Amino acid sequence: MYRITLDRPAAKVALVILGLAFTSSFVLYLCESLSTTRNSLYGRSYLETLKAIVVLLCSGYDVQPPGTTLGWVCAIFAAFLGIAFVAVLTADLASVLVRAAMHGEHTTSVCEADHIVFCGWRPGAEELMEQLVSEDQDQVRTVVIVDDKLDSVPFLDPYVKLVKGDPTEKETLERASVARSSTAIIPSDWRLPEPQLRDSKCALSMLAVESINEHVYTCVELVSPDSERHLRRTKADEVVCVGRLARRLLVQAALSHGISRLLEDIVTFNQGSEVYKVALPRHLAGSTFRELLAKLSEEHGTILLSVERDGTFHTNPQGRFTLRQGDTLLVLAESYPYAIERLSLATSSVWAGQAP
Q1: What is the pTM of this model?
Q2: Which of 62-71, 213-222, 243-252 has the lowest mean pLDDT?
Q3: Are 143 and 181 in contact (CB under 8 A)?
Q4: Nearby residues of 197 by Cβ (< 8 Å), 6 or more positions away
Q5: Which domains, ranges and CATH numbers included, belong to the chain?
Q6: Exposed/middle/buried for 1, CB within 10 Å: 0-12, 13-18, 19+?
Q7: In a 10 Å sphere around its CB, with 0-12 CB exposed, 13-18 middle and 19+ buried, how is residue 17 labelled?
Q8: How many CA atoms, within 13 angstroms, populate the side-chain half-sphere of residue 273?
Q9: Which carries the bigger pLDDT value, residue 112 or residue 60?
Q10: Which residues pair with 288 in a beta bridge?
Q11: Which among 87, 101, 148, 238 is placed 20 to 30 Å from 70, CA to CA?
């Protein structure tokens, strides 16, 4: 919640105003303490000066005027800061009330960039929204839902918006600002009666998205494995086939009891550790997989799972697997592993000669 609060423009402006107020109080204290007016309220101590500035900031009432010209300037400046502070809080409260009054209504269009477009609503998608806007992520991005059946936003969150319309139509996707989006999620429409119809709609939505923005990263959900080979011929970046994935997971659960619960815990935000994808820092290129694995585990409680190189995943590679510039790391951690950027293997307890 604090992250969402600090992202608000009003919160940032309020912090700037408070910073300027503290600065003016310090300048006022220095001026009054060095002046000949030794009995000035502002020059007795910095705490007294700060209290006087707080009074000016909140009410505009001054119990004792400053004794110097610069002190007067600082006092007047603090009074104007108080007016600005109240104005910012009032405007932000008004925007909250307006947004609350308008909540539930879809928007005609959005002006977003680097956002996620969610093409089509489905039962149970509330859990997906909760994961997409989770504060545990490195960067929370706006999610724009595109659906022709919804009349109100189905998930209450400041980062979730709704554009009503058919996600297979170009005009609707343009109103959702797909041209400037970074990711498009195309879930299967479980409101349709047959799996073939669901997969066909996903394919049409994906083609419509790609026709507007060929650089957007598309994630498509399919029901039938037979439809996957057809969708692979398009430019879909990732295809998740629910039928095939469920069958393979059932087999693994039967052979290794409890593995389905383990995988569910890993891919769920806000519950334990999750898998994060991090670009390999340049200064770590040339180190081995085992060196980095040991360093992250010992010092940061992070587990290195796999390395993505040229579209191929090397999970727990055997032998002396050397990391290269351009590799991407997949790690298991409780939060985004910022420590990797500051990591140095110079003091590692794992010697290069010990790496298998």
Answers
A1: 0.59
A2: 62-71
A3: no
A4: none
A5: 2-102 (1.10.287.70), 116-248 (3.40.50.720), 273-354 (3.30.70.1450)
A6: exposed
A7: buried
A8: 14
A9: 112
A10: 322
A11: 87
